[in-house]
Fold this protein.
Amino acid sequence: MYASGYLWREEKFSVNRSNRAFLNQAFWGQISIVLGTICFNSLLFKYYLNMKIFDISIPLNPDLPVWPGDPRIVLEQYQTIESGHASNNSKLACGVHSGTHVDAPSHFIKDGITVDQLPLDVLIGPAFVADFPKAETVTPDSLEALDLQRETTRLIIKTRNSALWSDPHHVFNPNFVAINPEAANWVVNRGIRLIGIDYLSIQRYKDPEPLTHRILLEAGVVIVEGLCLQSVNAGIYTLICLPIKLSGSEGAPARSVLIEE
Ligand SMILES: [Zn+2]
């Protein structure tokens, strides 16, 4: 009886010792997880606190200038709470190249992919904003002078065009700044996959042929047009540009933002 009692106590003791070691390990394990989570969350919080988001989209409204010949933008309420309906409901009619928008390859290339097929990893990611305040045309020389980092694959071009959007109801201005076909070739050869500009076309109004569009779209470069970059300085940002997923369309309006870290 005594012996078995002794053995029982020893057994119990040894079980307790290993339990304690296990509990100790579990305790410190939990503490490290909690501390790790706190550190990670505070870093994340600091990141979100410090980041600045620039909305580079033009508000779509019926008074916005559109490309000559394109339909005007119609946004109207067909039911209103004021007139006794339970909710406000609106309808929108406009060209897909209205305001801030994306051109997909099928805009100028037969059998090119459409806007709903554009790869999201091109539309989202690091982008370089280049500022050409005095340029009349963006040329390969002006692009070469940027001395872009090798990994740059998204290029946003800011020009005097952006100032035009301070009056969002201005009459379409055909003297906007754009890139020439040689610059389009430079963009393709440099491996740029997305190019953006701050007026309604990436190519000059007076160009007799749509060469700039064709060169870019043939190579699968995504074109973003109608950006407003007034409040953005040159530099590196994270671009998020999401065109409406219009099935089979060659373009679509796109809410676009730049995030500065
Ligand atoms: Zn377009």
Notes: Residues 96-260 form a domain with the Glucose Oxidase; domain 1 fold (CATH 3.50.30.50). The chain has two domains: 2-50, 96-260.
